[in-house]
Design goal:
The protein has helices at about 1-5, 10-20, 25-35, 35-40, 55-65, 75-90, 105-115, 140-170, 190-205, 250-265, 275-285, 285-300; strands spanning about 45-50, 70-75, 90-95, 120-125, 170-175, 215-220, 270. By secondary structure, the protein is of the alpha/beta class. The chain has a single domain (about 35-300), classed as Rossmann fold. Helix 5 packs across helix 10, helix 7 (about 105-115) runs parallel beside helix 8 and helix 11 packs across helix 12 (about 285-300). The relative contact order is 0.13. Bound molecules: NADP nicotinamide-adenine-dinucleotide phosphate. The site of NADP nicotinamide-adenine-dinucleotide phosphate (NAP) has 32 residues, from helix 5, helix 8 and strand 5. NADP nicotinamide-adenine-dinucleotide phosphate binds near residues 55, 75, 149 and 177.
């Protein structure tokens, strides 16, 4: 396995050396010439969780700008539907059914991408599931399942893609959440998985300073998608309803646009939604006040478990 994925060390050393001769681009130049289409055209972008919500919106957005998108998720029929939309406007999509919680699937995803395109420019670790239960009575297996997808899925995909991203001077992206920074009552496993994700991604960013790897952490706020319908209840079954008003949330398309902008500007991290920004700001300054607001907000949800 290692043989297939590990780049030849000499190749890696050479590519670092070659790139180190390139002049640093000035920020103003960068912003000028990184017109979206120019930036995305021909780029190879792997998106996990591409069959629904934010992942689907990013896939369509980036493919419409000329990127070769690699769509990964478990359900082939849903992936195919996204692939058909992309094909309808002449875009390019490679579909690789993947369960990111399975290590060999992630290896296969990266391998298939390299086989088809020979490089990886951007890896977007977006696949995710949520949960909703009080920790007092949740089946512990629920927390493990959430962790296996949200945290370990990112670790596995990143592990196999990282060397290739270094060579392409590409971007590593994680779709985290406001609750990667703050608590989220009724979602212990979900908040823990996003905190773990942030620690992992932030540390890779620092480790890769010498290689100038771009690492973007997206702290999404409430976004209209399937995540709450599919969130696991205390027994580990999908709750099949959303306890919040999805219509009042940011759209997945808007999130995709924000990620596209952040990629072109090689931003370090972004925090989305007005409420999301507000609670992060407050939590950093007055955490005990933020705790109470978070409790009240989540306790008033329909059938709140807390
Ligand atoms: N929506 C929000 O309010 C919100 C807020 C903050 C952060 N986020 C984050 O945004 C990301 C996308 O979520 P979303 O809101 O777009 O939810 P969504 O509509 O439910 O989409 C989730 C995607 O992840 C895939 N997925 C789930 N488990 C997987 C696995 N084991 N392997 C591969 N793919 C898997 C799903 O496809 P399959 O089921 O077919 O595998 C689906 O494509 C998640 O990381 C989520 O935590 C969402």
């Amino acid at each position: 396995m290692r043989e297939l994925i590990d780049l030849n060390k000499e190749e890696l050393r050479k590519s670092r050396k070659d790139l180190s001769h390139l002049p640093e681009q000035k920020e103003t130049d960068k912003n000028k010439n990184l017109e979206s289409k120019d930036f995305f055209g021909g780029k190879v972008i792997i998106i996990t969780g591409a069959s629904s919500g934010i992942g689907r919106a990013m896939a369509i957005n980036f493919a419409s700008k000329g990127a070769n998108v690699v769509l990964a998720a478990r359900k082939l029929d849903r992936l195919n539907r996204v692939g058909e939309i992309i094909a309808s406007f002449g875009g390019n999509a490679l579909i690789v059914p993947t369960d990111v919680s399975v290590h060999r699937d992630c290896y296969f995803l990266i391998d298939k991408t390299l086989e088809k395109y020979g490089k990886i420019d951007i890896l977007i670790n977006n696949a995710g599931i949520s949960m909703r239960a009080s920790f007092l009575d949740v089946d512990i297996d629920v927390l493990q399942r959430v962790m296996n997808t949200n945290f370990w899925g990112t670790v596995y995909c990143t592990r196999h893609a990282l060397r290739h991203l270094i060579v392409s001077k590409g971007s590593l992206v994680s779709i985290s959440s406001i609750c990667g920074i703050t608590p989220l009552p009724g979602r212990t496993g979900y908040a823990a998985s996003k905190h773990a994700l942030d620690g992992f991604i932030d540390t890779i960013r620092v480790e890769q300073i010498p290689n100038k790897l771009h690492v973007l952490s997206v702290h999404a706020g409430f976004t209209s998608s399937n995540i709450r319908n599919r969130a696991l209840n205390r027994y580990g079954n999908e709750q099949r309803e959303t306890p919040r008003n999805e219509e009042k949330m940011m759209s997945a398309e808007k999130v995709a646009n924000e990620v596209a902008k952040a990629l072109t500007k090689r931003k370090r991290d972004i925090t989305l939604t007005r409420d999301g920004k507000l609670i992060v700001w407050l939590y950093k300054r007055l955490p005990a006040v933020a705790d109470k607001i978070l409790y009240k907000e989540m306790a008033k949800e329909v059938n709140s478990p807390i």
